[in-house]
Amino acid sequence: MPEATARHILVDSEEECLKIKEKISNGEDFAEVAKEHSSCPSRAQGGDLGSFGPGMMVPEFDEVVFSAEVGEVHGPVKTQFGYHLLEITNRTD
């Protein structure tokens, strides 16, 4: 069964999400930006969500985490919770 580790940043608007993505693209540390901007409790761990399998997260999240490039920042991804930036840190098939 596939398994992944990922971290994310959750914000209220697509606009804010894009501004944060630009900061990371310009070299700011993902974990530090998550601590500063994310509204998810995972912010305390730099957005780290730990290890999980398919179906353990919302479908929009799973779609990206189990198909997109590992090690890159993806998003904005809209879910019922808001807008996410996702970084897949590891994935096994």
Number of domains: 1
Output mean pLDDT.
97
The strands making up the biggest β-sheet line up spatially as: 2-1-4-3
Instruction: Tell me the overall shape.
Output: globular
Give the N-terminus to C-terminus distance in angstroms. 6 Å
How many helical elements?
Answer: 3
Assembly status? single chain
**Order of helical and strand elements:** EHHEHEE
- State the share of residues found in helices, binned by percent: 25-40%
Walk me through the structure.
There is one protein chain. This protein is of the alpha+beta class. The chain has a single domain, classed as Chitinase A, domain 3 (Roll). The protein has 3 helices and 4 strands, in the order βααβαββ. The protein has helices at 14-25, 30-37, 59-65; strands spanning 3-11, 48-52, 73-79, 82-92. Strands 2-1-4-3 form a 4-stranded antiparallel sheet. Strand 3 and strand 4 (82-92) form a beta hairpin. The longest helix is centred in the first third of the chain and has 12 residues, at 14-25. It is globular, with a radius of gyration of 12 Å.
What's the arrangement of secondary structure elements?
Blueprint: E1 3-11, H1 14-25, H2 30-37, E2 48-52, H3 59-65, E3 73-79, E4 82-92
Antiparallel strand pairs: 1-2, 1-4, 3-4
List keywords for this structure.
alpha+beta, 93 residues, four-stranded antiparallel beta sheet, 29% helix, single chain, 34% strand, Chitinase A, domain 3
